[in-house]
């Protein structure tokens, strides 16, 4: 993955847009902004960003009209950006949890898309989401409504990956309660440092737990398939959370 240098922030809310710009600039990134979809596309041509952070509900142009909320301009913009720059990472910010199914449809054909609920997490999680998007990962904020997401995620996996994930899900009961807590934090895209802080254990113990979890859930087939460990663990965590919510 190439270093992230430039981030495009698209939000028609002036306070949100400038707040994100200020925070990301303080983290060492060059930040360009747009208040509507047309401006974002223009920025893409002038100074191509590595990652775009896009509010899901934005105006089409400077008229300030957001249009029909049932046809999300933000998601239309994601498609347009990906058509022009397939390698661009995208973080979608949403205050509307019912957009989940539309985002999952994007996952079917595109990589590097992160779906995050606005205001649900600390700013450091946004940084993690930006890094994940840049390297081509897909991720859904656990605070989103996850009904039926388990099936979607399994359907999105490759023919090689799916049986490995299914076997890992079968082995989940072999994990200890503490290991289940750590796995859940992996699904929330927490760093090892943050996991240690939230679970009140040292960071070295987190690493030991993650290694044990991987060894318990995944067999030799996973290693031979050369699949990224962190991605497999995150997908298992998300599918497990979704299944438990679906059973309520």
Descriptive key words:
2 domains, 6 strands, Rossmann fold, 12 helices, about 55% helix, about 10% strand, Arc Repressor Mutant, subunit A, alpha/beta, single chain, about 250 residues, six-stranded parallel beta sheet
Give a topology summary:
Blueprint: E1 6-10, H1 14-26, E2 30-34, H2 37-46, E3 51-55, H3 73-84, E4 89-94, H4 100-107, E5 113-117, H5 123-134, E6 138-140, H6 149-156, H7 161-171, H8 177-187, H9 192-199, H10 203-217, H11 220-224, H12 229-246
Parallel strand pairs: 1-2, 1-3, 3-4, 4-5, 5-6
Helix pairs in contact: 2-3, 6-12, 7-12, 8-10, 8-12, 9-10
Q: How would you characterize the overall build of this protein?
A:
With 248 residues, the protein is an alpha/beta fold. The protein has two domains: 6-145, 3-Layer(aba) Sandwich (Rossmann fold), CATH 3.40.50.2300; 150-246, Arc Repressor Mutant, subunit A (Orthogonal Bundle), CATH 1.10.10. 53% of the residues lie in helices and 12% in strands. The protein contains twelve helices and six strands. The chain has a six-stranded parallel β-sheet, with helices on both faces. β3, α3 and β4 form a beta-alpha-beta unit. α8 (177-187) crosses α12 and α9 crosses α10 (203-217). The termini are far apart.
Strand order, sheet with most strands: 2-1-3-4-5-6
Q: Largest sheet at a glance?
A: 6 strands, parallel
Number of domains: 2
The CATH class of the largest domain turns out to be Alpha Beta
Q: Report the end-to-end length measured between terminal Cα atoms.
A: 39 Å
In what range is the share of β-strand residues? Answer: 5-15%
Cα-based radius of gyration, to the nearest Å = 18 Å
Cα shape: globular
CATH topology of the largest domain, by name, is: Rossmann fold
Mean of the pLDDT scores? 84
Helix-strand pattern: EHEHEHEHEHEHHHHHHH
Q: Specify the CATH homologous superfamily of the largest domain.
A: Response regulator
Note poorly predicted spans. Answer: none
Number of helices: 12
Oligomer: single chain
Structural class: alpha/beta
CATH architecture of the largest domain: 3-Layer(aba) Sandwich
Say how many strands there are: 6
Percent of residues in helices: 40-55%
